[in-house]
Amino acid sequence: MALRQDPEKLDYPAGSDTKASSDYDKTYLQHHEESGPGYDPIIDRYSEAEVKRIIRRVDLRLIPLCGLMYCVSLLDRTNLSNAAIAGLTQELNLRTKNPDRYSVITLVFFLTYVVFQPPTTILTRFFGPRIWLATITLFWGVTMIGFGFVQDWTALVGLRLLLGVLESGFFPGVVYLLSTWYKRYEVGKRYSIFYLIGSLASAFGGILAFGLMQMEGISGYRGWRWIFIIEGCLTCLVALLGYIFLVSFPDNQKSRSIRFLSAEERQLIVARVNQDRGDADLETFTIRRWLGGASDWKIWAYGLCFGCATTVSYALAYFLPIILNLGLKYDTGTSQCLVAPPYAFAAIVMVATGWYGDKYRQRGLCVAFNAVLCIIGLAVMGWAYGDTRARYFGVFLATAGANANVPCVLTYQANNIRGQWKRAFCSATLVGMGALGGIVGSTVFRSEDTPTYIPGLSVAMGSQVVILIVVGALTVTFKSNNKKADMGAKILEDSPTFRYTA
């Protein structure tokens, strides 16, 4: 159903052949900020309270399940560090320095994860989120069970490569799916809660691993093997839940998965997105249209920010238990349990910055704040040597800054692009560059740098400085372009009413 109002009936300035001209004044812009080029009368049939109730139903159906599926995704890709200090390193002889086998095993995941990213958003559209995302989740759960039966470190390398192929389709697909259901200034909190639920894997993965270690010797298997086997079984269970309950895109009116809303309510969801940014209706797919986003330098700037954020978040996910164990000299059980509190603090910062960004329509400021917080934390971790409590406090700040910036950067790019296929391309490139950050993060903390890990911490701090530089450049660009658009001298993202969110 086409929900856009007839362009000829819109109240555009007289004499404007492109729907924008030098007479395109702020009065017109303010009027159409509310009605928008995709305005539909169905919006006026619902009160604000009724709309909130409908969106809440969407939230309950979409956010918790996507977050839970991302939780097992993170758990399965990062449980290597918990298994390492639970006996994996010794049994498979991973302590050799040439090559550093542990770093190789963590690194290879990202090779296939990056290579297979680009087409995944297209496949999400083609098969539908319920079929595609649930299927790949099931397959990587089975792969994870296989981790528990390896007898040689090279087998781990092969399984990690396969895991990268399967998980490459999940995160960009979910990011794309969420962006199609919400308006620009609603999505920040949703991304934060989605990522917050996912981060439970990092927060409580260590505690879960400590519990599974107690299965040492059952059926003749070491405790670290049970970590992989049980967590793989949990992933398969979550995949089944995804197949049953996950919803499709709101414009797919024929999908049974979105029939928890009435036909008119589904039409309202699409109309709201069209009102906000005018891109809810799916355009016909062409390779040229999909790749067209590559010519926009801002797409790569968002990706660079995301890659720099994930450099630290992945580094902490893979190495924090090891840093606590070897660097801060906590025993194995304590190290696994002490991972949780910093992630709990990160959850608070994550939700707070998401709420602030949505309420005050600020994105770059939130990203910059988190980057500065991370820099401070990393500095304390590295240069407060001799004071274990101070270094652990630094872990809180670094973990909060790095992880809170993941949903912040996701929202930053989602607010500043238009078009279904450009959005799909941007989601894939953003997460792909995030995977490149994972490659860096999986190699920066070398065993020979213990106990201070100064080289790795320096690289991590440098990545956050890059974020500050890129956000500064984007802010200047956005404000300049918005000013030109207000004067009618420029049309942004092919829409006369669109404005960038700095």
Mean pLDDT: 87
Number of strands: 0
**CA-atom Rg in angstroms:** 23 Å
Order of helices and strands: HHHHHHHHHHHHHHHHHHH
Helical proportion, percent range? 55-70%
Q: State the secondary-structure class.
A: mainly alpha
> How many helices does DSSP assign?
19
What is the assembly state of the chains in this entry?
Answer: single chain
Describe the sheet with the most strands. none
% residues in beta strands:
under 5%
Give an overview of the whole structure.
There is one protein chain. By secondary structure, this protein is an all-alpha fold. It contains 19 helices and no strands. The protein is globular and about 65 Å long. The chain starts with 25 loop residues before the first helix and ends in a 16-residue tail after the last helix.
Structural features:
disordered N terminus; mainly alpha; 502 residues; 0% strand; globular
Q: How would you sum up this structure in a few lines?
A:
Helices cover 70% and strands 0% of the residues. It contains 19 helices and no strands.
Write the layout of secondary structure elements.
Blueprint: H1 26-35, H2 48-78, H3 80-91, H4 101-115, H5 120-127, H6 129-147, H7 153-167, H8 171-179, H9 187-213, H10 223-245, H11 263-277, H12 287-291, H13 297-327, H14 332-337, H15 340-360, H16 364-383, H17 388-414, H18 420-441, H19 454-486
